[in-house]
Amino acid sequence: MPALYYFVGVPLEKIQHEWAQNEPDNKNNAESCLALHSDGRMSDERCDEPRPYICYRPHSDVEANVCGTPDPEYHFESRTNKCYKFHTSSRTFKRANFACQAEGGYLVIINSEVEAQVIRDIWIKYPAVVMIGPFWKDVAYVGMYNWDESEDWTTIHGQWLQEAGYAKFSPGEPNNSTTGEYCGAVYRNGMFDDLYCEQDYAFICEKEPSYPPVCDSDSPRPFEPAICHNGVGQAQIQPDNQMNEIMKTQTSNVVI
């Protein structure tokens, strides 16, 4: 029986498409995802192979807030000029990092005692009773790790903690009490802990208010550069050729 492919819930047979030569072939019975070639034709590919990808979002009249996002759970903090979101749905370190990136941010990096106080104040708003699930509710993942298993912890942006401006671990930490505690977290008191990276915990995302720019797609003339606004009200021009540069790739197909 031929494979049944779906595109956002719609059977592929109901969408105009063209397969590449000898596709789909489900090589080694392991190809369950679709990829789009540079010539517009399609093939089936392994789902666990990394490839470029294209995102689509329909036009919406929802306006971005001061944090540069329509997500109301991001809140601007004037003490640091950054935005923060506390995720009460637990994730592993890797998936937490992915979630923050998907929202235009990153796992929070504490750069000062002032920012540590911001995190303490955020914790106050999230007592254990508001978090659902069987996970420890007094720690949350932050953007630091120790993947080379040394004494030197770095942020996800590649800085040593001392360079980043804040390196306060809770007394007795890091202790790697469970082998594999190479990912960073913060207690309610603003001090760091080391955690097992594959365990689910709450996490905190940080976001620059000016990223990503929000662009007005209703251009008065075709091919006119879009006007883009960051989260603090400044405007910038989005060049016509910027999307072309983004779309350039050395690979022959992308995931759809």
From TrEMBL:
It holds the Pfam family Lectin_C. Residues 19-56, 79-206 form the C-type lectin domain. InterPro entries: C-type_lectin-like, C-type_lectin-like/link_sf, C-type_lectin/snaclec_domain, CTDL_fold. It comes from the Eukaryota. This is C-type lectin domain-containing protein. It comes from Arctia plantaginis (Wood tiger moth). The lineage of its organism: Eukaryota, Metazoa, Ecdysozoa, Arthropoda, Hexapoda.
